[in-house]
Amino acid sequence: VTAELMESLRRVFVDSVSDSFYPVPQEAIGVGSAFEGWSPREWDGVYRVLVPLNPPPGHAFHLELNSAGQMAARTFSVRVELACTCKREQLGEKLLCFLHHSQEELWRKQKRSLLETLCTGSYLDVEKTSHWFCQLVRCSWLHVPQSYSWHLVFQPCSRSCQFQLSRGKKSVMVEILFGVRQGDSDIFVVSQPTEAQKGSCSGFVSSQAAEAKSMASTAWAESYAVAEAKFFRHIARQLPCESVHLKCLQVFTSVLSGTGFSSSTWKTVVMHALTIVPLSRWSRREFARRLWDIMAYLHCCLQWKRLEHFVLGSERLPAEISLPPAAQRLEPLNLFEHLARDPAAHREAMQAYGQLQFR
Prior knowledge:
Beta Polymerase, domain 2
């Protein structure tokens, strides 16, 4: 339902923004556990899609890293620059160059630039973009076939577009995130932290490290959700017909929830296990063995106080998943670094592992 709706909306979006200088929405990408084929017990029931935004004519996007900080929680600002369109004007396009025409002529003959509508200063504003995008969906709704059979109600959110679709007793919650692609890669900066980023990689963190800081309206969170979803599709094409890798993930995130290990920790561990254990061994008859393999891998990570980020700096990433050049040069990021710094947190994690093993 979500995928079909987004494709219908995209067709309408193309016409809606064609005569303006607003960002250009691209084809939506399903992200998160629901689209990857598994969902933890604490899943909020929201189907999330990411809509990449391209700059309109006469504009360019440039990503600026806000702080070096924790690599897995980096934020960027999207600087908007005006670009020369004189050549396009010479080819007969009805497009005045923002750089080489007078302000008076631009004001009389052309609509406002993106800098004047959705930016704060020179930077694309998440909250202004969110408001514009919700208005775009609202205006497009009556032009899509789904409007004849579904009822749409918007939900308040300042950094994404959320709504509920209902038809009789059936309802679907949808959240549209929007973002900017880093070059030609599968890494994006997005309007709101994605599903895995909303919870820390492990529950065993100090209260100081766990404090959530409100994001500025011009801050966009770096997201690896598209790369991870692409990895699961890559694996699915090579696994046996009745593979159990997603069942393993569901066991650890649902049946064994409440043991202190977050769903993003289990997801990372399972993704690593899929690159270590031969794919031919993930058949249903080897389900129990694969559960113990995953447990053993987690145990080693806890003992060494090191769990490497699966995307950043990983040497096991399939070649079809594209990373920005800067990310390819990074050292593998340790998601258990806090356990090495905090002996008390490490002891708590080892005790939780013992309880998990017993269960």
